[in-house]
Hints:
Strand content: 5-15%
Structural class: alpha/beta
Number of strands: 4
Bound molecules: iron/sulfur cluster
Oligomer: single chain
Largest sheet: 4 strands, parallel
Helix content: 40-55%
Amino acid sequence: MQENKVKNEDILLHCCCAPCSTTCIEELIDDGYNIILWFSNDNIYPKEENEKRFAELIKLARFHNLKVIRNSYDHDKWLAAVSGLENEKEGGERCSICFDYNLNITHKKALELGIKYFTTTLTVSRYKNSLKIFEVGNKYSGFVEKNFKKKNGYARSIKLSKDLNLYRQKYCGCEFSLRDALLFEKQRAEKSKNI
Ligand code: SF4
């Protein structure tokens, strides 16, 4: 479903983390939705990081007085889904499978709860292709195309995270994105030593 103003409709918002959720919540409230937050992120590694991101989302939910529902954590299941794609760069095929994995679960949860609409905070990231996320999301009924990058959403999410003192991680979520982020930091440090 394309972006539109609505009145008093429930929407299940798949939240990857609190910082990305900040601006998405603002926008969905402005659209007229009643938001239910959904934390289901088997991709996040390690488990402690998953816990930490959930705890931050709770802080944000309290701030907005929103309900949060959490799924159980099964990282092995997610690993099996992306098997063979471990060396893909962020933004590649592994990420498309990861989007599908999380949106499929979100869709099922929305159906179970009798919530007509669902969407995801994933489009706020400037590292993620919103059209790719829409392509995946539109496989499922009730998906709402929200491009949260629009209206300077990414920059606003950083500002709101600072204002609310939210923990903001330095990698997307899985161990492969952590590996690449650490490698990038190392290369940057080595480069600056040689200047
Ligand atoms: S980099 Fe992010 S989107 Fe891509 S597979 Fe890993 S957790 Fe999923």
